[in-house]
Amino acid sequence: MIPVTELRYFADTQPAYRILKPWWDVFTDYISIVMLMIAVFGGTLQVTQDKMICLPCKWVTKDSCNDSFRSWAAPSPEPTYPNSTILPAPDAGPTGIKYDLDRHQYNYVDAVCYENRLHWFAKYFPYLVLLHTLIFLACSNFWFKFPRTSSKLEHFVSILLKCFDSPWTTRALSETVVEESDPKPAFSKMNGSMDKKSSTVSEDVEATVPMLQRTKSRIEQGIVDRSETGVLDKKEGEQAKALFEKVKKFRTHVEEGDIVYRLYMRQTIIKVIKFALIICYTVYYVHNIKFDVDCTVDIESLTGYRTYRCAHPLATLFKILASFYISLVIFYGLVCMYTLWWMLRRSLKKYSFESIREESSYSDIPDVKNDFAFMLHLIDQYDPLYSKRFAVFLSEVSENKLRQLNLNNEWTLDKLRQRLTKNAQDKLELHLFMLSGIPDTVFDLAELEVLKLELIPDVTIPPSIAQLTGLRELWLYHTAAKIEAPALAFLRENLRALHIKFTDIKEIPLWIYSLKTLEELHLTGNLSAENNRYIVIDGLRELKRLKVLRLKSNLSKLPQVVTDVGVHLQKLSINNEGTKLIVLNSLKKMVNLTELELIRCDLERIPHSIFSLHNLQEIDLKDNNLKTIEEIISFQHLHRLTCLKLWYNHIAYIPIQIGNLTNLERLYLNRNKIEKIPTQLFYCRKLRHLDLSHNNLTFLPADVGLLQNLQNLAVTANRVSGPAAGAHAGGRPPEARDGSPPPWLPRPPGGGVRGEGFPHQGWGAHVCC
């Protein structure tokens, strides 16, 4: 027979899987082991002991043995004796019945009667118990062996145990204890005036920007005091980071289906059906296990007898074992029915971490579904502590804290100082690109003036930014930054310029509209979504001190909110990326504008609304579709206009009215199709910079010498013939090295004496030919 230790393979699973076995599975496994012992014990007895013991029957009545008492003293009707003769002993009384069979005949009779007359239930009872028990064990453990489920279970258990033992789990839960025991916020270390300012600013933000109030609970996170919770080393931090990635990928994979749940449900249903079947037929057939068995077989020609009385020695023991087995099956079935009720009484395809969110500081732990939820329900039946520790790795707040810790280990203060540079405005600048967050050491650079954050997802600006006392400019390129109230209070008082570049309009943080002291705002991204464009930029009305607004987008018309802000704007720049900007009448309200840029707006004519802006000093209409500029006559009403940029267009000629712009100092007409320069252009005596490069000019009029203040003249990439073709592109031609004008350029009246033609040594203009 097979030893019990060998059969344990069917009952035992991998030790790691024990956490996935609820109490009912453990209970049914032990019941199955007892059933196995019953089967092995019964089978062993049946093999080692005599199965049947049979004797011929001498008194036969109607093909059955007659067991009635026969008195030898009193005569009675003589029964028939077909097989033997009774020889009474008159002197000694009755003696035993003697048969003329040998041992082999007895063995033959035992085997024939056992095979043909013993009931099948009594004959195969141990094997039936073994078969049913193996089926129970297979149903209980099939989900651990089936490839599509075992792979998920193995992966889940592996990740779960690593999360349970991770030092980051202990640290995260200890932080929760610290925060619960210390109601004082971490940023309470800041000075009293900053605390007072923070609370005031928070109230003001909620009052002036309702959108910020709705998202306040989402964007505000506390700062952890690391001194109370210990520090992870770099290796442990990297291991925890890898665990976060594994949990994310595993969750995405497992939540796609519910095969584990369905398989567990099916094997439970099979066990319930099996239990009902066993009870039904076992109770019905158990009375067929009898000790006495009458055996009538047609073997009289071999033994001389036809009817036998047989004894089944194991019948009594088998009846006891059968009764015990039935009781075990009943217990097993009740447990399976309870399991089925547990699975049906509520949805196990959803798992909520509500209690853990209430107990811990990680309120963002998401609920899970499908197989992931079902496995967590099973884990709770083993020990709820596993789910609690595992939930740490589902929290984005926890991941951000770990990411911050790893950043601080990687980006030391010395490393950051090496990345400091001076920008074009001679300001100290730090550019952080594609990091997982902002290292805390950044806020130790008190001398920092410009901070650029690019491609940094889900960053939160902490209160410690108040240490950057020199910070005046902030860049957020594809960085959806959140902010805490104390940090917002600091930026409101100190930030002057903000640059935001985005792909999705949701990347524009709503808190920027509470920066009341902001003077420059640069927005670059797609604002074409009609449904939410104005919702996002309506907050511009709150920026009362805004002086410079740059929009690089694809607007079809100028939003009303830009017009409202334009009352106090001094510079407006719109780069429309080639999209036609149709409605520009609202520009008339921007009476304080001094600089206007309409770049790549597909303009075919100069907008009339510009002529009402009497404070304009600079106009830039670069890269449009201008073919004629007849409206330039109206520029004479703009008495403060000093710079006009009409470059990168399709202008074929310059109207003679250009001469009315007497205050013009810089004129850019490069990259057009101009073939001739009108003489009236040289009436603009204040011109200091004139760019006529990349046109179709064939000569320069002699009146160019009238421009006595001209310092830079560019005529490169034209068709001007003469020595101009050989002039140096970056400076004055060789003929001009002695201070006299080149011979191909007509001299101004008076012979080019200093002060009459070009200033400073007779010819001081920088010529690019």
From TrEMBL:
<keyword id="KW-0407">Ion channel</keyword>
<keyword id="KW-0472">Membrane</keyword>
<comment type="similarity">
    <text>Belongs to the LRRC8 family.</text>
</comment>
<keyword id="KW-0433">Leucine-rich repeat</keyword>
<keyword id="KW-0813">Transport</keyword>
<dbReference type="GO" id="GO:0005886">
    <property type="term" value="C:plasma membrane"/>
</dbReference>
<keyword id="KW-1015">Disulfide bond</keyword>
<dbReference type="GO" id="GO:0140361">
    <property type="term" value="P:cyclic-GMP-AMP transmembrane import across plasma membrane"/>
</dbReference>
<dbReference type="InterPro" id="IPR050216">
    <property type="entry name" value="LRR_domain-containing"/>
</dbReference>
<feature type="transmembrane region" description="Helical">
    <location>
        <begin position="124"/>
        <end position="144"/>
    </location>
</feature>
<feature type="transmembrane region" description="Helical">
    <location>
        <begin position="322"/>
        <end position="344"/>
    </location>
</feature>
<keyword id="KW-0677">Repeat</keyword>
<dbReference type="InterPro" id="IPR003591">
    <property type="entry name" value="Leu-rich_rpt_typical-subtyp"/>
</dbReference>
<dbReference type="GO" id="GO:0006884">
    <property type="term" value="P:cell volume homeostasis"/>
</dbReference>
<dbReference type="Pfam" id="PF13855">
    <property type="entry name" value="LRR_8"/>
</dbReference>
<dbReference type="Pfam" id="PF12534">
    <property type="entry name" value="Pannexin_like"/>
</dbReference>
<dbReference type="InterPro" id="IPR032675">
    <property type="entry name" value="LRR_dom_sf"/>
</dbReference>
<feature type="transmembrane region" description="Helical">
    <location>
        <begin position="269"/>
        <end position="287"/>
    </location>
</feature>
<keyword id="KW-1133">Transmembrane helix</keyword>
<dbReference type="GO" id="GO:1902476">
    <property type="term" value="P:chloride transmembrane transport"/>
</dbReference>
<feature type="compositionally biased region" description="Pro residues">
    <location>
        <begin position="740"/>
        <end position="749"/>
    </location>
</feature>
<keyword id="KW-0812">Transmembrane</keyword>
<dbReference type="GO" id="GO:0005765">
    <property type="term" value="C:lysosomal membrane"/>
</dbReference>
<dbReference type="GO" id="GO:0034214">
    <property type="term" value="P:protein hexamerization"/>
</dbReference>
<feature type="region of interest" description="Disordered">
    <location>
        <begin position="723"/>
        <end position="757"/>
    </location>
</feature>
<keyword id="KW-1003">Cell membrane</keyword>
<dbReference type="GO" id="GO:0009986">
    <property type="term" value="C:cell surface"/>
</dbReference>
<dbReference type="InterPro" id="IPR001611">
    <property type="entry name" value="Leu-rich_rpt"/>
</dbReference>
<dbReference type="GO" id="GO:0140360">
    <property type="term" value="F:cyclic-GMP-AMP transmembrane transporter activity"/>
</dbReference>
<dbReference type="InterPro" id="IPR021040">
    <property type="entry name" value="LRRC8_Pannexin-like"/>
</dbReference>
<dbReference type="GO" id="GO:0006970">
    <property type="term" value="P:response to osmotic stress"/>
</dbReference>
<dbReference type="GO" id="GO:0005225">
    <property type="term" value="F:volume-sensitive anion channel activity"/>
</dbReference>
<dbReference type="GO" id="GO:0042802">
    <property type="term" value="F:identical protein binding"/>
</dbReference>
<feature type="compositionally biased region" description="Low complexity">
    <location>
        <begin position="723"/>
        <end position="733"/>
    </location>
</feature>
<protein>
    <submittedName>
        <fullName>Leucine rich repeat containing 8 VRAC subunit A</fullName>
    </submittedName>
</protein>
<feature type="domain" description="LRRC8 pannexin-like TM region">
    <location>
        <begin position="1"/>
        <end position="340"/>
    </location>
</feature>
<dbReference type="GO" id="GO:0034702">
    <property type="term" value="C:monoatomic ion channel complex"/>
</dbReference>
<keyword id="KW-0406">Ion transport</keyword>
<feature type="transmembrane region" description="Helical">
    <location>
        <begin position="27"/>
        <end position="45"/>
    </location>
</feature>
